[in-house]
From TrEMBL:
PROSITE patterns xrefs: JMJC
GO molecular function, one term: metal ion binding
Organism, scientific name: Qipengyuania algicida
Pfam families linked: JmjC_2, WHD_ROXA
InterPro entries per UniProt: JmjC_dom (IPR003347), NO66-like (IPR039994), ROXA-like_wH (IPR046799)
Keywords: Dioxygenase, Iron, Metal-binding, Oxidoreductase
Gene3D superfamilies registered for this protein in UniProt: 50S ribosomal protein L16 arginine hydroxylase, Chain A, Domain 2, Cupin
Domain of life: Bacteria
Name this protein carries in UniProt: Cupin domain-containing protein
SUPFAM superfamilies: Clavaminate synthase-like
Length: 381
């Protein structure tokens, strides 16, 4: 993709919207509308169907969808949205490779939408960064001012639509064009004609409340009930109704000390940001993979491939040591195993080094990951 990533991060990332005219070296739409509709009806796939029933009114149908939902005789503009399509379609997952200049742990998923002429989900804002890649057809995007929790919304149980949308910029995207939107910017996309498909590459940004609450809950689970406040050096109180500064210091220290363990926090964060998006699908193989099978496959060469639905990340703890996180599970690695883990986090697929078969530690890691459905070894073509 012909795109200056350094300039983008410096000038636009989390700062202002950017329209990018087709930067691909030959754009190829990776998914057909029929394939998307079929995926939307599969068990465990999160999808929504949004119909605009009036100028300022939208109706939402949630998962599970069926073919009957698409067969309704309805002239109202409609939009189908399917989450995490990259977890199911390798060709869609391949789109993410062009956006790896942003750390993997920030990537959420690729949502794909298909809209009839005039279809859209209404003016709204998101709390995360998104790249909107036009796959098929044309869509008009209007962008407005930045919004926050005080922004007025239309009354709707499940759709957060803006009550007063005032566009300040407008672009018409054609196949291969990209619109980047930072968090909070109001926007509204409307299909211009039939067969309008858009790939929304969304990024995660944990809220402070989510981090504080989750980390505190984790720490609480590890605390000893007998670890209590004590003051063996207590002296007579000048005023029994006062909470003395020394007592406040002790109470504050009890809390902050428990929460301040950076090593434990790093391990918890690694598990948090790699937790699977959905627990509805089990990717593990039907039959367990044995170390002997892994050794033979490695010796034969081939490609070690990551499951695109699995999340990989690492945190270093030394020059030759790191912790590998895969779908919320932590694995401590050092030496050659750490170097392999580093490559797995950096590449969606690796050419197998037959010498790996001679390392019980590498065989053990790959065997473990294969049995969880996180990796697979495929023969070279």
């Amino acid at each position: 993709m012909d795109f200056d990533t350094s300039a983008f991060l410096r000038d636009y990332w989390q700062k202002s919207p950017l329209f990018i005219r087709n930067p691909w070296r030959g754009w190829n739409n990776p998914l057909t509308p029929d394939e998307l509709a079929g995926l939307a009806c599969e068990h465990g796939v999160e999808s929504r169907l949004v119909r605009q029933t009036a100028p300022r009114s939208w109706d939402l149908t949630d998962t599970p969808l069926s073919s009957a939902d698409f067969a309704e005789e309805d002239t109202a503009p409609w939009t189908l949205l399917v989450q995490a399509v990259d977890h199911h379609i390798p060709e869609v997952a391949a789109l993410l490779e062009q956006f790896r200049f942003i750390p993997n742990w920030r990537i959420d998923d690729v949502m794909v939408s298909y809209a009839s002429d005039g279809g859209g989900v209404g003016p709204h804002f998101d709390q995360y960064d998104v790249f909107l890649v036009q796959g098929l057809g044309r869509r008009r995007w209007q962008v407005g001012a930045r919004c926050d929790e005080r922004t007025a919304l239309l009354p709707h149980d499940r759709l957060r639509l803006l009550a007063d949308f005032q566009p300040t910029d407008e672009w018409v995207l054609e196949a291969g064009d990209i619109l980047y939107l930072p968090p909070g910017f109001a926007h509204d996309g409307v299909a211009l004609g039939e067969d309008c498909m858009t790939y929304s590459i969304g990024f995660r940004a944990p809220s402070r409340a989510e981090l504080v609450s989750g980390w505190a809950d984790h720490v609480i689970d590890l605390l000893d009930e007998d670890d209590r406040y004590s003051d063996p050096d207590l002296t007579p109180a000048a005023n029994p109704g006062e909470i003395a500064p020394q007592a406040l210091d002790r109470l504050h220290h009890m809390v902050t000390e428990a929460l301040a363990d950076r090593h434990s926090f790093a391990r918890w964060v690694g598990a948090l940001v790699t937790a699977p998006k959905s627990d509805l699908i089990d990717w593990s193989p039907m039959e367990s993979v044995t170390p002997q099978v892994v050794e033979a496959d490695l010796a034969a060469g081939g490609i070690l491939e990551r499951n695109p639905a699995c999340r990989f990340a690492l945190i270093r703890s030394g020059s030759e040591r790191l912790t590998l996180f895969v779908d919320g599970d932590a694995r401590d690695c050092d030496g050659a195993v750490a170097r392999l883990a580093e490559q797995l986090c950096d590449h969606a697929s690796l050419k197998v080094d037959p010498a790996w078969a001679g390392s019980p530690e590498i065989v053990g890691l790959i065997c473990d990951l294969a049995n969880s459905g996180s990796v697979a070894i495929t023969p070279s073509v």
